[in-house]
UniProtKB/TrEMBL annotation:
<feature type="domain" description="GFO/IDH/MocA-like oxidoreductase">
    <location>
        <begin position="137"/>
        <end position="279"/>
    </location>
</feature>
<dbReference type="InterPro" id="IPR000683">
    <property type="entry name" value="Gfo/Idh/MocA-like_OxRdtase_N"/>
</dbReference>
<protein>
    <submittedName>
        <fullName>Gfo/Idh/MocA family protein</fullName>
    </submittedName>
</protein>
<keyword id="KW-0560">Oxidoreductase</keyword>
<dbReference type="InterPro" id="IPR036291">
    <property type="entry name" value="NAD(P)-bd_dom_sf"/>
</dbReference>
<dbReference type="InterPro" id="IPR050463">
    <property type="entry name" value="Gfo/Idh/MocA_oxidrdct_glycsds"/>
</dbReference>
<dbReference type="Pfam" id="PF22725">
    <property type="entry name" value="GFO_IDH_MocA_C3"/>
</dbReference>
<dbReference type="Pfam" id="PF01408">
    <property type="entry name" value="GFO_IDH_MocA"/>
</dbReference>
<dbReference type="InterPro" id="IPR055170">
    <property type="entry name" value="GFO_IDH_MocA-like_dom"/>
</dbReference>
<feature type="domain" description="Gfo/Idh/MocA-like oxidoreductase N-terminal">
    <location>
        <begin position="1"/>
        <end position="116"/>
    </location>
</feature>
Length: 378
């Protein structure tokens, strides 16, 4: 695994847990973790459960006892690490968004296609697909329970940079992150909505906004928290992105991604309206799925809350008895479960690099659509 901070910790938890919960055809062994600071990566290895720590990711790729490279670094290094790993015959799990640009994502897809021909697998870490309620939403829509999908409404709202004194961390720098709220959290709802509906976005128009254009430079940073220094620098990404879209199955959709939604910490909400019913998911209540079944007798219609903890619900047969709820980190355990099973059985894990490139193309289209803004006549 490369990178050991936020996602590094989430992935480590999942790698540690996955074989203890799921019966799989292969076992994960946590061979080595990479970070650039020798003392810090050694401490992280001990804390997170990795046998060894190294300071250059190339060392991981050169080793014969490593089969999988898990990329948990910011977007500016995804392409270089993933392509080198695939060329060395390592299976790759890469965090989202796949890359910082469409060109990088295309190069990663080319490397993945070449590697696939040699039995080497790759996938991108859109973990929210693996929340059981989201998986159930996908299954119900695929089974036709709400009929043709008309509307998709998705928001992903955070508020961690509303303070203008919050410093210029890597997520606010285009060369490190590619984009702001758009690529960081907007990418999640693009993937999630396309996954649950089985439809792909074919066109968009939207806007992006950067409310705070200068911020103090970082004096000490780890992950999402950082302390501010004296000098300031330019914010080169969006703080918020809003767009509308058409999907290839005839649905229309609205999306909102913001880091300025005061009071909203990690509010990912999706509603899908179909001709025969609707489904709604709220990450803050991730064990639940709301279902409105319009095929029921009129007198009995109404929103029902499905507690998604039954053994027959996706992934849950391996966990606890019904009603014993799960949390955020389980989505990563499920991601590793599906990845290990695919690699061990010679199948392609999902979402593929091709799927993730398509998300990147949507991000790119949203950013470009800003240029065709129509001003109201005076
Ligand atoms: N799936 C999700 O829900 C989710 C959530 C957060 C972040 N992410 C994604 O995960 C990735 C990492 O984000 P994060 O929040 O963990 O960031 P972070 O800042 O918490 O951690 C990044 C880690 O990468 C390390 N790193 C950076 N460049 C490196 C290099 N060249 N070699 C070795 N290590 C290097 C840093 O030292 C740090 O350990 C990003 O692509 C981000 O978009 C996904």
């Amino acid at each position: 695994m490369v990178g050991y901070a936020f996602m590094g910790a989430a992935h480590s938890q999942a790698w540690r847990t996955v074989n203890r919960v799921f019966d799989l055809p292969a076992r994960a062994s946590m061979v080595a973790v990479c970070g650039r600071d020798e003392a810090k990566v050694a401490a992280a290895a001990a804390r997170l459960g990795w046998a060894e720590a190294v300071t250059d990711w190339r060392e991981l790729i050169a080793r014969d006892d490593i089969d999988v490279i898990d990329v948990c670094t910011p977007g500016d290094s995804h392409a270089e690490i993933a392509i080198a790993a695939l060329e060395a015959g390592k299976h790759v799990l890469c965090e989202k968004p796949l890359a910082n640009t469409v060109d990088e994502a295309r190069a990663m897809v080319a490397a993945a296609a070449k590697a696939r021909a040699a039995g080497v697998r790759s996938a991108c870490g859109f973990n929210y697909r693996r929340v059981p309620a989201v998986s159930l939403m996908h299954n119900l829509i695929a089974a036709g329970r709400i009929g043709a999908v008309r509307h998709v409404r998705a928001v992903y709202l955070q508020d961690w940079i509303t303070d203008p004194q919050f410093p210029l961390v890597w997520r606010l720098q285009k060369e490190k992150a590619g984009s702001g709220a758009l690529g960081d959290i907007g990418a999640h709802i693009i993937d999630l909505t396309q996954f649950v509906t089985g439809q792909r976005i074919t066109g968009v128009t939207g806007l992006t906004e950067t409310f705070i254009k200068e911020r103090p430079l970082v004096s000490d940073s780890s992950g999402l928290s950082a302390s501010a220094g004296q000098a300031t620098g330019e914010v080169t990404v969006d703080d918020a992105a809003l767009f509308i879209a058409r999907l290839d199955g005839g649905a229309v959709a609205t999306y909102e991604a913001s880091r300025f939604a005061t009071g909203r910490k990690n509010a990912l909400r999706v509603e899908v309206n179909g001709e025969n019913g609707s489904l709604a998911f709220d990450l803050e209540r991730l064990n639940e799925l709301e279902f409105y079944d319009a095929t029921r007798p009129t007198a009995e219609q109404g929103w029902s809350r499905i507690l998604v903890t039954e053994g027959e619900h996706p992934y849950l047969g391996a966990w606890w008895p019904p009603g014993h709820i799960i949390g955020y980190e389980h989505s990563f355990t499920h991601e590793m479960r599906d990845f290990i099973e695919a690699v061990a059985t010679g199948a392609d894990p999902t979402p593929s690099f091709e799927d993730a490139l398509q998300v990147q193309l949507v991000l790119d289209a949203v950013a470009r659509s800003d240029a065709s803004w129509v001003s109201v006549a005076t």
